[in-house]
Amino acid sequence: MEERQTCDLAGIWRFEIDKEDRGFAEHWEKRRLTQTITLPGCLQAQGYGDAISEDTPWVQSLYDALWYQRGEYVYAQENGTKVPFLSQPPRHYTGKAWYQKTIFVPEKSDGFVGRLTLDNTKWKTTLWIDGECKGSIVSLCAPHVYETGALSAGEHTVTLCIDNGWQLSYRPDGHGVSDALGATWNGVAGAITLELFNRVWIERVKVNAQLPQAAIQVHLKNETSHIQNCIVHVQDTVHTDISADAVCVLTQGSQICELTLNYPCLL
């Protein structure tokens, strides 16, 4: 049995803009969305959102309600509104938009736990798997990473609500949020991956080297309902004769296994 499988969720997603903010109240995560969009990508670049006009409610103010009549700008308004921004978006939209995709878990990964990673999205996301909420994340810079829990073999529906509206107190001319640098997009600009793990796995490894010893903490996770016995083997890839082993009895949940590597050659 494979211990890990990575699924690339790039491609066509079902989609709807939630301009009137009705999706949460009407439980859009439980119905099939009707439009389509490509991810990675943003909705404004794919023809969604409002056309740019003199009345567009920009996040960053232009500080002059009649800016388009000023001599340095008036010449550019003949074929549609042009604003004095470095990166004018093709359309304008701030608020919630919903994205949905049907995925398939193969039989060999039945019961594996999932981790969904959204690389480069903003500002707030909420995830549902088969209508069950898996949480929300607010971040402008870090990947949004969700633990899905165990997934059975077969089809599952992934639903995302992405809200690029104002989430926290922040200066409107900040590079991460302003219209001037094209930062008011809604979507996912980077990779969208679903990793499927065996239900017993290594979460992370921490090494504290105080030579001639190295203390190692192996953080293990057991998502089964049974006690699992495992052997942890750690080996230096350069000094291959230096290694350590430990037998771990894993109850359900997280557990730390501690080992020590000794480096007599460095005494």
Key traits:
hydrolase activity, hydrolyzing O-glycosyl compounds, mainly beta, 2 domains, 6-stranded antiparallel β-sheet, 4-stranded antiparallel β-sheet, Jelly Rolls, Galactose-bd-like_sf, 267 residues, 17 strands, 1 helix
Supply the CATH superfamily name of the largest domain: Galactose-binding domain-like
> How many structural domains can be distinguished in the coordinates?
2
- Mean of residue pLDDT values: 89
Q: What structural class do you assign from the helix and strand content? A: mainly beta
- The largest beta-sheet arranges its strands as 3-2-5-10-7-8
GO molecular function, one term: hydrolase activity, hydrolyzing O-glycosyl compounds
Organism: Anthropogastromicrobium aceti
Protein name: Beta-glucuronidase
